[in-house]
Specification:
single chain, 189 residues, five-stranded antiparallel β-sheet, four-stranded antiparallel β-sheet, 4 helices, globular, binds 2-oxoglutaric acid, binds fe (ii) ion
Length: 189
């Protein structure tokens, strides 16, 4: 966990710097955050992989995901042309997903990536994501220095902890209404 968090901070700093800001600009938002988490995913073999998905299409809610895939493929990302492509597993490398928090911070300069996991008839699969997420107290919105009269904020600010609570209140049950999304906070588009 500690090593993953350290790597996540480094990546965050590089991305923040790439937008012309001091690298530590958002550091405080993640200090002592208790919403970051490590998960282990297990995908058993599936007799009818064409009828099922391991994880259906989604974008990660967090800032960044650091994912170790093992050596069995299954992860697919959606390209701009709408095609799904396989992310070839490399057990020596992490896959980094940009999540919704970076999209909001950056006022859409960085876009969170849509992805899904397909299952396999012959071999089970494991994956190990670390989700790097701000503290619950953070009021999240586009970083003010990135907005101006010419570049209006594309999101209104919202409290991150309350957002997560509302988003996961359903505890993965289908309540028949769409889950809360960052798009619910979109303005000026
Ligand atoms: O299993 C994977 O490769 C990715 C899993 C995933 O997208 C997730 O846990 O959010
Ligand atoms: Fe994901």
């Amino acid at each position: 966990m500690e090593a993953a968090e350290k790597l996540a901070f480094t990546l965050l700093e590089l991305m923040v710097e790439s937008m012309g800001l001091p690298p530590c600009r958002t550091h405080k938002h993640f200090e002592s955050s208790r919403t970051s988490l490590f998960r282990m995913n297990h995908y058993p073999v599936c007799p009818a992989p064409e009828l099922a998905l391991g994880v259906s299409r989604h974008k990660d809610t967090v800032a960044l995901t650091i994912l170790l895939q093992g050596d069995v493929e299954g992860l697919e990302v959606k390209c701009q042309d709408g095609e799904w492509i396989t992310v070839k597993p490399n057990p020596e490398a992490f896959v980094i997903n940009v999540g919704d928090v970076m999209q909001v911070y950056s006022n859409d300069k960085y876009q969170s990536i849509e992805h899904r996991v397909v299952v396999n008839k012959n071999v089970e699969r494991y994956s190990f994501p670390y989700f790097f997420s701000p503290g619950h107290w953070v009021d999240l919105g586009p970083i003010p220095e990135l907005t101006s009269d010419q570049c209006l904020p594309k999101y209104k600010s919202f409290n991150w902890g309350k957002y997560l609570k509302r988003r996961f209140d359903s505890n993965y049950k289908d309540l028949g209404v769409p889950n809360l999304q960052i798009s619910d906070y979109r303005v000026n588009v």
